[in-house]
Amino acid sequence: MKSKDKKTSKDDKQFVSALQVAKYAGVSRSAVSRAFTPGASVSAKKREKIMEAAEALGYQVNDLARGLLARKSRLVGLVVTNPELGYRSHLVAALTKALIQRGSVPIVINTGNTEEELVAAQKTLFGYRAEATIILSGSPPSSFVDLARRNGQPLIVLGRSETGADDVNIDNEGAGREAARFFLAGGAKRLGFAGAMSRTPTTIEREHGFRHEGELRGAEVMIGNGSNSNYSGGQEAAQQLFSGVKRPDAVFCVNDLVAFGLIDYITHHTNLTIPGDVSVIGFDDIPEAQWDAFNLTTFRQDAAVMAAHAVALLDQRESEPDRPPAHDRLTTELVIRGSTRNATAKSRSEPERIR
Hints:
single chain; 355 residues; alpha/beta; 434 Repressor (Amino-terminal Domain); Rossmann fold; 3 domains; 7-stranded mixed sheet; 13 strands
């Protein structure tokens, strides 16, 4: 009796096979395969018997194995560095949702931050013969792009541009110029930019647009770069910008996480107030930007919209594999809250939006 119980426990841990369904239904193994293959020849009565057996046993088709046999895995790799941080986490969530609705199977490949982690990530992604690759942000290196090309995969790049690849991008320079104009219209005299030493394409473009527009209009522009584009990087950038005799009275931050670090540094390590002494603009409009602790004026990137554009480009590439690379450009809106002097007379609960 004990032996039987042990056997049952072991069997319960195994996936139900098509052969077990065939035996349960009293049909051949090939009949089960045909029943689960759209358009395959099998009688209605036999299909019903097979489906009842599958339901009783809890059988599910092994889509991965079927896809590999058909040389189309339906896997789509999402390549990203630090997917848990800021806007990237929301973009990964939006992409996985959109890909599942499409019928794809998303796999998130975290490239890590070391050469060893990068090599492991590359082996994982291309070892599974993914149907396509989507690369997020500027952090994953170009070696991923080159390897994807050599493997003949459709490639979508988000937040950067790569030769020969479809991409979805934000008008980063335009947002930087708009931030400078907004500050100057509010009475700012000396501008600051809080960026990162990682120098990703988005950081470079936002800084360039902001600096060029500010200097074009006669303003002095100061630059502070943290080690990374995260909260601690924002604190480092703030220390650089506010430790000297000269200080900016308005700061554009490369993203919201940097803005949060900068705001906390100003609040807890200087005698300055926000927005009375310093106006702050971020970028992304992640949910925390609305928190009372920050009440951050920021440029909104809609993760769901970017994900929809990425999936649409993937569909287009699969239907027209030889067409030239497509370049989608998305606009942002400036959501005005209480971290800028221009917004002091406006309701905290009803932010103004500038398109």
